[in-house]
Amino acid sequence: MIRFLLILLIVSILAWLGLHKCTKSVRPPLSINPTESFPQEKNALLGQSMARILTHCPGFQRHGALLEFTDLTEDGDAITLHFTAPHSPNIPAEWGARGLQCTLRVEKEAFILDAKAGCQALCLGEQGIEGQEVRVELKGRTR
Fold first, then answer.
1. What whole-number distance in Å separates Cα of residue 75 and Cα of residue 59?
2. Is the Cβ–Cβ distance between 54 and 60 less than 8 Å?
3. What is the model's pTM?
4. Pick the residue with more confidence: 36 or 105?
5. Which of 28, 47, 95, 111 is the one with CA 20 to 30 A from 22?
6. How far apart are CA 57 and CA 50, in angstroms?
């Protein structure tokens, strides 16, 4: 009887673990908002660049759909994203990011946030460092 209950317990735990794996919530993909002036032929490159940095940018994960991407420039292996933060109440006022024009340079092994604290906060999800660029390593990922 004890052996039967033990087997039943083990089977129940394994079934629960399997169901738990299947019901884990999956974060929906980020909606990217290029402006009308954004070059249409660069949409795929914008998506690829955002995919590379998104795990390092909790602020983009929360507020990225609000950002307005205005341009993307290529320089060798580097890509520079140009975007504006709207005057949205969904972006914390203490970040000082509302209305800012920002740049983010994605290189082969890192990305660099421009020297505006508000622009850094949009990516980092916390207050940035005014007047100092922030470099974030991408840990072996390449374009």
1. 26
2. yes
3. 0.73
4. 105
5. 47
6. 9
Q: Please, which residues bridge with residue 129 across strands?
A: none
* Interatomic CA distance for residues 143 and 74, integer angstroms: 12
* Distance separating the N- and C-terminal Cα atoms of the chain: 59
- CA 9 – CA 131 distance, rounded (Å): 59
* Secondary structure class of 131 (helix, strand, coil): coil
Could you tell me which of 118, 106, 129, 119 has the C-alpha nearest to residue 48? 106
Percent of the chain with pLDDT over 90: 52
Over residues 19-52, the pLDDT tens digits come to 444 444 444 456 777 888 888 899 999 999 999 9
Amino acid type, 23: T
Q: What backbone torsions phi and psi does residue 75 show, to the nearest 5 degrees? A: -145, 95
DSSP 3-state of 74: strand
Alpha carbon distance 138, 58 (integer Å): 14
Query: Would you say how long the chain is, in residues?
Result: 143
